[in-house]
């Protein structure tokens, strides 16, 4: 049983994200993420213009006429949502916590996947793996994933992307599309991330709050790190402090982007104070374009 408040929250996110999938992501997800293999479909007579590499020499020799093999792309994918729900995600300056936005992102991706008959799994982590739901299909399965994220109550407070990636390597042996959703306030995971990126189609979704880049002028402010408990007091009335705060944020995002790209990952920066749906849609369209260019 789930309480009425959680049930209402699940219903709201289903309506909102379902609308986004129908109006914004229709077709984009399918085009952006292709199957990972080719499946034999049929043998047919050779026609002028066919690729001679496709000729089935066994059938050709047996019949005395040229025949070719036809294959179709395996459309069905396995999608795994790796979600960082550590204590730092309980922060939010826009009326929604970062973890709430993460839940909405997962819902959009899940609904997009289920519309294409793909399998979806969930891996929630903090400083250790908290929850794992094996990939499955259908709306009942998707609603379970959304419910698990919204009702999540962590045991750990810190963040360990490395531990989560190590666990991924144990439970997901076959190639998958992996969405790693985090603020990436962590270190020591780089080597493991590069290894996993070689095996899986890994997309890093960095979720940040506007306050992390733009500090308002409100005098002396004491900030507490939700993961470490460390307190820090800063003078937000100082233009120099606000400028350095913004500069540090920009440099961090750019450094993270360059690292991810150099490791062969797709990287998307989503700001909870902006239209993250548009940012995600733009990523889908750009990825679709790259695939089409690569084929030409």
Mind explaining what this structure looks like?
The strands form three sheets. The protein has a six-stranded mixed sheet, with helices on both faces. The protein is elongated, with a radius of gyration of 23 Å. β3 (78-84), α4 (98-115) and β4 (119-125) form a beta-alpha-beta unit. It has 296 residues and is an alpha/beta fold. The protein has two domains: 4-32 and 75-295, von Willebrand factor, type A domain (Rossmann fold, 3-Layer(aba) Sandwich), CATH 3.40.50.410; 38-73, no CATH class. The model has no long low-confidence stretch (mean pLDDT 82). Helices cover 43% and strands 23% of the residues.
| Contiguous uncertain segments of 5+ residues | none
Count of alpha and pi helical runs = 9
What's the name of the CATH homologous superfamily of the largest domain?
von Willebrand factor, type A domain
Helix content: 40-55%
What percentage of the residues does DSSP assign to strands (E)? 15-25%
- By CATH reckoning, the class of the largest domain would read Alpha Beta
Q: What order do the helices and strands follow?
A: HHEHEEHEEHHEHEEEHEH
Shape: elongated
**How many distinct domains?**
2
From the alpha carbons, calculate the radius of gyration and give it in angstroms.
23 Å
**CATH topology-level fold name of the largest domain:** Rossmann fold
Mean pLDDT: 82
The count of DSSP E runs of length 2 or more, i.e. the number of strands, is 10
Span from first to last CA?
A: 53 Å
CATH architecture descriptor of the largest domain: 3-Layer(aba) Sandwich
Largest sheet: 6 strands, mixed
